[in-house]
């Protein structure tokens, strides 16, 4: 199947192979840089997340894609929907802010707030999820939800549940970039 | 006029060296042009492309051009443009990779300054790459140099650019417009500029700029097989015109 392409590679030389590999590598590099740039612009570690559970229904369902920002100088209010990560747990959680308490901070740019959250579809607040903490601090917050797209996140969920899909997609993309010439 | 048959099944005609040697070169120290060398024996595989894809047609022509002009008796290809593109490209990939790795290892707030530096560096490199490709490299396909010695060292430099002219229609005349007016199929436009000077470019001996346009159907048959001999002869004629110092 690839004999034609292999023959072409041998005919065109080593520089050509490097050029084609560069095509593939630069696609990946530009995707990575766009992601990092978005993270820096929004001041958020992970500006796009996927909802994994149904604890925020009927606002967000499993599989929704969320867009976050985390402006350092802005305060969070009751009712804001935030995504936070507890140290020690990998999974970010999307819940609504129930209470905010201010603590006197010594002139730092980030307002020193302590937050309590609760999922809309949950019976109780999130104290049990905090793994020993009594409240959330600003440094745990990944960002505040600004917008969302329904259903798109299922692609990510599928790729996490079936890793073969991820490798197949990457492998297919790589093959295409190595063989096509512009 | 003797005709030599070569051992390849695809080439049915051959240009014999006696043909072009009989025409006297215009200047006494004009080096040999590409037509005066015997045709390349078909050691390479048959070139077969998808005739519907203009990009593949152009790439096949460009590759055949590079193979033809970088033969041992002819020009030596200069890889400067390719090397610059490779260097800038791979450098930007490594910068991106390094930045990504750093952002992965170090916690977000702490990593921000380094990630900013990496991002700006990446954008600069990509911008430089784009500018280089657009302004300096342009449509250039082949840059070649040759040094020959006859009484004194002669340096030649040839640059070829190529592009595809898309399908076009002949201009409609006001009075008669026949339904049988055929569209012109995609064409391969080749332009070259040639300079010949004595060693270290001390004095200019010859300079030529030529160009030619030919439809792809002249070089490819319906199946997509490339008639390399016809293509090489077309290119050779154009190069010889340039070497003779014509300006077209």
From TrEMBL, chain A:
Q: Which domain of life is it from?
A: Eukaryota
Enzymatic class: hydrolase
MF GO annotations: serine-type endopeptidase activity; signal peptidase activity
* GO biological processes: signal peptide processing
EC number(s) per UniProt?
3.4.21.89
Q: Where are the transmembrane segments?
A: 12-35
Entry keyword Transferase: no
From the Swiss-Prot or TrEMBL record, give the protein name.
Answer: Signal peptidase complex catalytic subunit SEC11
Automatic annotation (TrEMBL), chain B:
Location(s), subcellular: Endoplasmic reticulum membrane
Regarding protein family, the annotation reads:
Belongs to the SPCS2 family.
What is the designated name of this protein?
Answer: Signal peptidase complex subunit 2
Keywords assigned by UniProt, alphabetized: Endoplasmic reticulum, Membrane, Transmembrane, Transmembrane helix
Q: Which GO biological-process labels does this protein carry? A: protein targeting to ER; signal peptide processing
Membrane topology, record value = Multi-pass membrane protein
Native source organism of the sequence:
Roridomyces roridus
User: GO CC: one term?
Assistant: signal peptidase complex
Q: Where is the composition biased (Pro residues)?
A: 25-37
TM spans (from-to): 86-104, 116-136
Q: What is its main location?
A: endoplasmic reticulum
- Ranges where the record places region Disordered: 1-37
Free-text function comment from the UniProt entry: Component of the signal peptidase complex (SPC) which catalyzes the cleavage of N-terminal signal sequences from nascent proteins as they are translocated into the lumen of the endoplasmic reticulum. Enhances the enzymatic activity of SPC and facilitates the interactions between different components of the translocation site.
């Amino acid at each position: 199947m690839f004999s034609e392409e292999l023959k072409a590679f041998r005919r065109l030389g080593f520089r050509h192979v490097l050029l084609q590999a560069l095509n593939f590598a630069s696609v990946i590099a530009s995707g990575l840089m766009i992601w990092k740039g978005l993270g820096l612009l929004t001041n958020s570690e992970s500006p796009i997340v996927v909802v994994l559970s149904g604890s925020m229904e009927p606002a967000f369902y499993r599989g929704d894609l969320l867009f976050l920002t985390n402006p350092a100088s802005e305060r969070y209010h009751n009712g804001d929907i935030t995504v936070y990560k507890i140290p020690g747990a990998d999974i970010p959680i999307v819940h609504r802010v129930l209470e905010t308490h201010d603590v006197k901070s010594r002139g730092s740019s980030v307002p020193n707030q302590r937050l309590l959250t609760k999922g809309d579809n949950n019976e109780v607040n999130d104290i049990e999820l905090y793994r020993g903490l009594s409240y959330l601090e600003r440094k745990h917050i990944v960002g505040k939800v600004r917008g969302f797209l329904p259903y798109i996140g299922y692609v990510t969920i599928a790729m996490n549940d079936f890793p073969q899909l991820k490798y197949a997609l990457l492998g297919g993309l790589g093959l295409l970039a190595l063989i096509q010439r512009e | 006029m003797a005709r030599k048959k070569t051992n390849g099944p695809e080439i049915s005609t051959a240009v014999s060296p006696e043909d072009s040697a009989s025409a006297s070169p215009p200047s006494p120290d004009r080096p040999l042009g590409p037509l005066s060398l015997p045709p390349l024996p078909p050691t390479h595989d048959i070139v077969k492309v998808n005739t519907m894809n203009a990009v593949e047609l152009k790439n096949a022509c460009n590759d055949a051009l590079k193979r033809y002009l970088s033969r041992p008796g002819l020009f030596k290809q200069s890889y400067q443009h390719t090397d610059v593109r490779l260097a800038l490209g791979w450098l930007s990939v490594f910068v991106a990779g390094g930045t990504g790795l750093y952002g992965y290892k170090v916690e977000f707030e702490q990593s921000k300054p380094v990630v900013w530096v990496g991002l700006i560096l990446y954008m600069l490199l990509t911008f430089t790459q784009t500018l280089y490709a657009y302004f300096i490299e342009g449509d250039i396909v082949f840059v070649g140099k040759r040094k020959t010695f006859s009484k004194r060292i002669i340096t030649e430099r040839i640059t070829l650019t190529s592009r595809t002219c898309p399908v076009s229609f002949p201009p409609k005349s006001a009075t008669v417009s026949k339904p049988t007016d055929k569209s012109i199929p995609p064409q391969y436009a080749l332009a070259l500029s040639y300079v010949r000077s004595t060693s270290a470019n001390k004095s200019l001996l010859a300079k030529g700029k030529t160009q030619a346009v030919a439809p792809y159907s002249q070089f490819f048959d319906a199946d997509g097989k490339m008639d390399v001999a016809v293509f090489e002869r077309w290119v050779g004629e154009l190069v010889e015109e340039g070497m003779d110092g014509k300006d077209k």
